Amino acid sequence: MPIRASARLALLLAAAHATAIAAVIAMPGAWWLRLAGCTLLVASGTILIRRSALLKASDSVVGLQLRRDGSCQLQLRNQRVISGWVCPGSIASPLMIVMQVAYPGQRIRRSIALLPDAADTDTLRRLRIFLRFAIERSARNK
Prior knowledge:
Largest sheet: 6 strands, antiparallel
Shape: elongated
Low-confidence stretches: none
Strand content: 15-25%
Helix content: 40-55%
Distance between the termini: 27 Å
CATH architecture of the largest domain: Roll
Radius of gyration: 17 Å
Number of strands: 6
Number of helices: 3
Mean pLDDT: 91
Order of helices and strands: HHEEEEEEH
CATH class of the largest domain: Mainly Beta
């Protein structure tokens, strides 16, 4: 399934980071600590929006292939394909899908957030059904 850039996700991430920056500015303390915090938040927001929402980074996920056993392949923007497993902790709601993918032999998981503008409606519906039923069933059988 192809994944498109999401303007909604970009706006949501920008709003979350702007709120965090406002909170850091409002905190008491040395100005240079607040400046450092704001700088880190701007960098974090820029990286996340570029990678997860606009899909401009080389390690952005631009395609996804799922299998009935819960395994998946992630197609990255740099043409690499990474295999992994969809974790049972993934969330599927009509407003947002958050898939957690575990890589074999690694403790780190990757989260993929999909809002309604990231793919066509039917594809997202099928993905929600897959996450609700196939992953739950495979988690119970383990």
